[in-house]
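Translate sequence into structure tokens.
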Amino acid sequence: MIARLAGTPAVAQSPLIIAHRGASGERPEHTRAAYLLAVEQGADVIEPDLVLTKDGVLVDRHENEIGGTTDVADWPEFADRKTTRIIDGVETPGWFTEDFTLAELKTLRARERLPAFRPASAAFDGQEPILTFDEVVAIAREASARIGRTIAVAPELKHPAYFASIGLPMEDRFVAELARLGLTGADAPIIVQCFEVGPLERLSRRIDVPLAQLVSPTGGPADRPGLTYAEMLTPQGLGSVAAYADWLAPEMTLVLPRDAEGRSTAPSALVAEAHAAGLKVVAWTVRAENAFLPTERRRGQNFAEPGDMGGLVRDLADAGVDALFTDFPGLARQALDAAN
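Result follows.
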């Protein structure tokens, strides 16, 4: 089977490899260096997470809280901006993008989010600025022209209900940016993700690009307090998702469940049921370190050391997923190449 993402050429390997925040296992996430390395390593798609600045610019950070991914704590002039916010019901301390203008954020530098697991990546701390969404698109386009194959982007809209609640509605700004960048058509090299339902439903009526509904093993969409992700994963729920989305994006243990000892069991029926509903499936997130792998794929006793990530990639491919998110696109590409 050959997997396709709208706007990208067919590739010999299936599933597609989406570089989760770039090659974020080897460079600080969401940086130019991480994205360029991902392309070099064979990724088909690069992923930016999008949040908003005080002046309404879409910027590329894992969360609107930036204490863990930048050097903001080292800047005395920003010390008084440390605060605590309730984000999707979770009390979160730190520094938040919505309290900074783009110009202020551009003075900060990125840091490795998991330095205890990734000290080699942390060696690149302090070198890269925060990117805007249009800068990530430019990276993908420049790389596509350079290497002769289309690199798509997979932006995730982070906490749109929260941003709307503080007077920074995200959807209009996002659609306007897509239009400015020429990324609103069905063949645009993009896939838009969100854990919330309402933004995707509304976007499905405004733009023609592929949309992906993210789902977790627990909880539910922040904008639909009466709905759980478990309900969305029933055959009836998948039919409802397919009315507005093109992709289902489950956490990988929803595809490959684990037993009480953390070992992978037989694949669930989710991929087959999603496909029956007309949805493609992209699983998240494949990481190389033992801490994130099923027990049978771990190597040694150190949770920070790499295990057999390639085996997990092949297991997901065998389970029929159409794409996967990974922090290590090079290892994923090697695993798929070896299987073909």
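Note: Confidence is low (pLDDT under 50) at residues 1-13.
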